[in-house]
Specification:
The complex is a heterodimer of chains A (about 250) and B (about 260).
Chain A lengths: L2 E14 L6 H10 L6 E15 L3 E5 L6 H8 L7 E7 L2 E4 L12 H12 L3 H15 L14 H12 L6 E5 L7 H17 L2 E5 L3 H7 L2 E6 L2 E6 L1 H10 L5
Parallel strand pairs in A: 3-7, 3-8, 5-6, 6-7
Antiparallel strand pairs in A: 1-2, 1-4, 8-9
Chain B lengths: L1 H13 L1 H14 L9 H21 L4 H26 L1 H4 L1 H6 L6 H27 L11 H25 L3 H15 L14 H6 L3 H13 L5 H25 L3 H4 L1
The chains are: A alpha/beta (about 250), B mainly alpha (about 260).
Chain lengths: ~250, ~260
Amino acid sequence: MSNIRVENLSIKFRIYHDRSPSLKDYFANLFKGQRQAAYSDFWAVKDVSFEIKAGDRVGIVGHNGAGKSTLLKALCRVYESSDGLITVDGRIAPLLEIGAGFHPEFTGRENIYLNGAILGYTKEQLRAIEPEVIAFAELEEFIDTAVKYYSTGMYMRLAFSLATAMHPDILVLDEIFAGGDAAFMEKAKARMHDLIDKADIMIMVSHDHRLVMSLCNRVIWMDHGKLVADGSPEDIVDRYLAGKVNG
Amino acid sequence: MIKNITSFFNELWIHNTVLRQLISQQLILRYRRTALGYLWTLINPLVMMSIMAVVFSTLFKADLKTFAVFLFAGMIPWNFFSSVVTQSGTSFINNEGLIKKIYLPKGIFPLSIAFSLLIDSALSFLALFVIILVIGGSLSWAVLFIPVAYLLLFFFALGIGLIMSVATVFFRDLQHVILIAMQALFFLTPILYKPDSLVGKVAWLVDLNPVVPFIELFRAPLFQASLPSLNVILLAVLFSISAMFVGLFIFLRQEKQIVFRL
């Protein structure tokens, strides 16, 4: 059974005020003895702890810059924690930004293999799912055309079909609901629901509160990097919309 | 450190599909939709080296054929070394989009560069080798030493490449400094001239130059038709191991910070 444990997680970003320090500045500061504070630390996530068990469908809500996406990326190992611990049991599928790692010069088929490898699929798995991915994306005619000639819709369809081709234990979603025409949206939604049903754990970040209410059975509210509330969707979303931390 | 190194290679192994994809991406992509395609990889150094051979053999009043073999044997390791170091320098910066969106062991990026350049270099070596034979180079059993020479050179270049890949993320100026430094290093490495012919005030720079034994590893079998001296081999082994050690040390210490600094 999958399980995620986050203990006192903090993630620090260093913000450089004017620019990235050049070699010259570095040595200049080294010899001055006293290092000038040309940067300030920013805690995108500060002292957050929670546990997610199998069966949980967690929605994360909060204002822009509250640290939601940073938290998701930390779960997917993109960001290393500055402090605290993350323990993840189960195969995690990062659906953070679909289409990341697509190469415009490559054909659709080549991108299935390149992007698929990046998503963690093995070559055998990719060979097995290739026809299904192409069929779902409705790209049979254009699969051997370079992706840079694709329309936005075609691009999104391919990325979505590939990213959702396998069933992960832990599904991590950051505001992705595929583009494309109405017919494809329907199909994509059905597939998304199927994926969510089959996953042990689902975690999503969304500003669409109706979506969060309909898909999640637990909501975490983040504000300025801190976890301010954690509970049932109705309760937390209501409080979040009203802007009240304590119901 | 040992534990980190094991997990470094372990992670790379787990992600070997991505590594292979990135390597083939680098090999295929450059020449897509060009008429001669991959052949450009061979043509480019061949033409460059031929021009240099003609010009410098005239300047040095040397026999063109002899000088060509001499030059080719030195240029092969140099080109590989210099492209690995230069291209590793931008390996993280060029893959910023990917690194910020999805977890991949960071070592994959400099490593894929080193591997794809190794393939390029091995192929242009084969082409040059044929030319060397045609213009009258001597074929000897010593040529069998070349794979060992490549192995040592590969780890030396990769080690320096790892250092550069990390350092450039922190100091962006370095990508330009590397280019200039490599140009200076080219002239301080006995590629156009014999190791002992640079005398005078700058001779000590050549003595300190760690690339010299690697040039010798290739030149001895190809030009002198003999094995490199034990001294040279030991020096090369020492430099390879040191470069890999320092490279891995710096890389493993900073690996987790890279994403925050891109």
